[in-house]
Amino acid sequence: MFCFFSLPNTGYLYSLKGGVELLSTYQYPEKVLEAVLTDFLLHVITKSALQCFTVRCAAVAARIEDPYIDTTMKACPPTSLEVCALRMQLFIGLRSVCVYGRHVILLSAADTETQEETERTTQRRGLELKEHTMLTGIFLAVGIDPANTPALESFLSRPFLSRKWTISSPKETSTVGHGWNLYVIDTVNPLTLYQEMVEYSQRYAETNLQAQSLRHLLSEAHLLLRASLLQTSGQQQNIVGDPATSLQTEADGPSEKETAVQTDIQELEEALRQNCAQLGDCFSRGSQKDCHLALPYYRMSGLSVTEIIARNRPIPKSTPSYGPGFLFYLKHYLIEETEQSLSQEGADEVIDIFSQSEPSELVSMCASPSMVNISPARTLRILQRLQDTAGVSVPLTITMATMMLLLDDLPQYTQLMERHAEMLLVYGFIEEPRLLLHGGGQHTHIRPTVLTRQLAKSQPGLLVAAIVALHENNKVQLEHADHIFKIHSCSHYGALYPWLTVLSPAHTISCQHQEALHKLQSLLCGPSLSVGSVMPLLERLSEETLWGFSLHLLCATRRGQYDRSIEKLLDRCPQAIIAYANHQLQDKHMVLWWQKLLPELCNRTRAAPDNSILLAALKETLVVVAMETSPTEFLELIPDDGTASYFLPHLLTCTQRHLLV
After folding, report:
1. How many CB atoms lie within 10 A of CB 220?
2. How far is 193 from 328, CA to CA, in rounded Å?
3. Contact 502, 531 (CB under 8 A)
């Protein structure tokens, strides 16, 4: 919610979110008669002009709607961004302004009142009804019904409308009294206005890409697009929620209105991505103070890292230099654990960029999982130059040894690794763990590097010491360390999870297929096979059969998608849910018994009270919840519409256990 009020020379816009906050102050160049605030612009009129100013409503709304704004993931221009004037149109004798949709409605009058006109005020009052009818007819002629718009009704009922008026014409001019003029102005489409702003911004870009004016104009364009998206998305929700539209959609597919709104949203989203790329360019070359904003804006642009590198290449025949924002983005991208790898050409260009700009970051860049396609011989020459200028360091030595491994030069690899004592090498791995391990992030699996595989064969003691040190220094999780130790020490197959036997019993498929299924299930239950490596196979397997469903569920569980797995299992095979929960929902996942499984079972038994399988699963779940929660917590978990006699025995068990403890 926003509050705007205006004095003749100054206007004030306040946000009421979480308290009263002054967003913007508007200093008018001349005395203002009236002002109207919209989602996009502030429209004000003076006696001789209509002026438009930018507003900050979208900047506030964006932060309320999206919690990732102002993080490394997403950005938005600040609410404190100074407002600016966009347009001015000249008129004569403006008296009032009103906004309806994308129409700005103006009323003006030439100041030609005479003494005789003043004396006939009483007679003119009788014309009020006629004048109101004529104005209403004009609005209806342009497709606007004042009866549906309280603002227009108020506009038409104002006292000055009782004066005699005519639509001005060069041929017919009133000899006495005011010559009233009514203007209905179509505001510029937001996309069109955005394109005009982009074209205008090119003037700054041609002279100085770091100009504050360029950044300000692109920020204004960004807020304009955000406001348009918020408004258009709201229109889409209203259309979807309209019962008449829903019936038509079910019968004939999307209506013309739905299709048009969806097209508008797609065009606005594409324009927003382009704008984010332009803002990313600005911040990539900007000052050190704001350079971090290049990262979220480039992420929002949807551009690949290769495309962003191309946008930041130095101009030919100029001194090679890269902005701090671009380097910040590139370091952040290469530090993150992603499944995407740069091509050899791209990886080599990254090495060139950092060898020129920040040579101290070369080791970290070489260790990135995105740089696996790096040219080892070329990179080794650059690292040797770094060693000559900066001196010998343990991480640099290990990186050079890795390049020797990639070149299959084992004697040189051994010579480099023997340069330092094993304990110093361990410290080097602590400083840069990605020399040993890739992945292990939220969406990636752990992968040993080529160096790890070599150490497992030639120096297993050093590998064990390094992995243990990484764990003790919180550089690697225990399960990831355990995974590395099992690579060369145990079978690739694992014991089948107990719930799999319930989900896919032997009689459902042939013996031959049963054996193949068990092998694949066992591999997925084992320590070696990563989910990512079997995803291409699973994409070709249907979930329609229970055995196909079991493989998809295994992979979803391995990826940590427990909530989704519980829902799908209850949909397809609820008799397996307790076996699944007993095996999977343990330790740190124990809370899912009452945070996910219990609410799901309550909802489903409420809808199907005679389902014995669901009722049995609910009873078993309550037994576990009663053992793992306090009486107060258990009481809070009981649904409001639950039967007290059903839950009371479990509450009693929970209370007794709590007293014993």
Report:
1. 21
2. 32
3. no
Under DSSP, the state recorded for 293 is: G
pLDDT at 267 over 70: yes
The DSSP string of 330-368 is HHHHHHS--S----HHHHHHHHHHHHHH-GGGHHHHHT-
Give the amino acid at 501. Answer: T
Sheet holding 49-54, edge to edge: 34-37, 41-45, 49-54, 85-90
Helix or strand holding residue 184 (H, E): strand 179-186
CA atoms of 311 and 333, how far apart (whole Å): 16
Q: Give the span between the Cα atoms of 653 and 333, in whole angstroms.
A: 52
How many alpha carbons lie under 13 Å from residue 112 in its C-beta half-sphere?
Answer: 14
Torsional sign, CA 576, 581, 583, 584: positive
With residue 36 as reference, give the H or E element that holds it. Answer: strand 34-37
Q: Can you tell me the distance from the alpha carbon of 6 to that of 221, in angstroms, rounded to the nearest whole number?
A: 25
Tell me the C-alpha to C-alpha distance, in Å, between residue 389 and each of 322, 363, 383, 392: 21, 15, 10, 9
Q: Closest Cα partner for 452 from 491, 412, 425?
A: 425
| Structure token digits, residue 371 | 């740089």
For 430, residues 6+ apart whose C-beta sits below 8 A from its C-beta are: 469, 470, 473, 475
Q: How many CB atoms lie within 10 A of CB 195?
A: 14
Which one, of 310, 280, 307, lies nearest residue 293 by Cα? Answer: 280
Instruction: Locate the domains of the chain by residue range.
Output: 2-186, 590-661
Give, for 493, the enclosing helix (H) or strand (E): none
| Per-residue pLDDT reduced to its tens digit, 378-417 | 999 999 999 999 999 999 999 999 999 999 999 999 999 9
Query: Do 245 and 273 touch, CB atoms closer than 8 A?
Result: no
Strands 94-100 and 179-186 turn out to be unpaired
Token pair of 136 as six digits: 């209403």
> Which pair of structure tokens corresponds to residue 46?
């003076």
* Contact between residue 403 and residue 376 where contact means Cβ atoms under 8 Å apart: yes
Q: Measured between alpha carbons, how far is 601 from 621 in angstroms, rounded to an integer?
A: 9
- Cβ(649)–Cβ(622) under 8 Å? no
What tokens does 194 get? 């955005």
Strand, coil or helix: 443: coil
* Per-residue pLDDT tens digits for 115-163: 444 455 445 554 556 666 777 777 676 667 777 776 667 666 665 444 4
d(CA 385, CA 52): 59
pLDDT > 70: percent of the chain = 81
Q: Does the structure show a pLDDT above 50 at 579?
A: yes
Q: Which residues of 319-348 are buried (b: 16+ CB within 10 A; e: fewer)?
A: eeebbbbbbbbbbbbbbebbeeebeeebbb
What is the number of other CB atoms lying within 10 angstroms of the CB of residue 496? 15
> What is the distance between the alpha carbons of residues 178 and 161, in angstroms, rounded to a whole number?
11
Rounded to 10 degrees, what is the CA torsion of 415, 419, 425, 428? -100
In this structure, the number of other CB atoms found within 10 A of the CB of residue 242 comes to: 15
Structure tokens, 300: 């929002």
